[in-house]
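Backbone-to-sequence.
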């Protein structure tokens, strides 16, 4: 398996992976990444300054990804870990931790001081991973992500 920066040809594949996970988990569609108008154009979105999105490729097929970008309507010292989703076939392989570490390394190089994320309360495995990496729960959302169905918010000092 390979972690690499997203390419334009990956847009459709990563959007399908993300949407499939929402269906698999019967997760809310409204107020989450599923309904983001940018979901089908992640390559273009992550060409913006201080932003990057990585995909995991297995046998030539995109099977997951995660990105980091400035927190929308937030302090310029805060970035957001975004759209971390993995197909069932690679969960538990350690690639989530590897891709998060790549995102955090990038964020540090961009002079971010805090990394923020939000997730759904039933995504307990992801939350355990975030805590192991050093994220801590906070009491409410930051910025303006539009993900009003997410009810768990976390930050990590970089």
């Amino acid at each position: 398996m390979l972690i690499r920066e997203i390419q334009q040809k990956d847009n459709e594949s990563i959007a399908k992976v993300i949407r499939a996970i929402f269906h698999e988990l019967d997760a809310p569609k409204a107020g989450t990444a599923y309904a983001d108008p940018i979901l089908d154009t992640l390559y273009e979105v992550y060409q913006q300054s201080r932003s990057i999105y990585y995909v995991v490729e297995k046998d030539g097929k995109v099977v997951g990804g995660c990105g980091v970008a400035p927190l929308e309507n937030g302090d310029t010292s805060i970035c957001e870990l975004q759209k971390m989703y993995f197909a069932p076939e690679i969960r538990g392989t350690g690639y989530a931790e590897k891709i998060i570490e790549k995102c955090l390394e990038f964020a540090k190089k961009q002079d971010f001081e805090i990394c923020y994320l939000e997730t759904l309360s039933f995504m307990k495995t992801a939350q355990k991973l975030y805590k192991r990496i050093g994220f801590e729960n906070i009491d409410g959302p930051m910025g303006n992500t539009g993900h009003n169905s997410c009810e768990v918010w976390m930050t990590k000092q970089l």
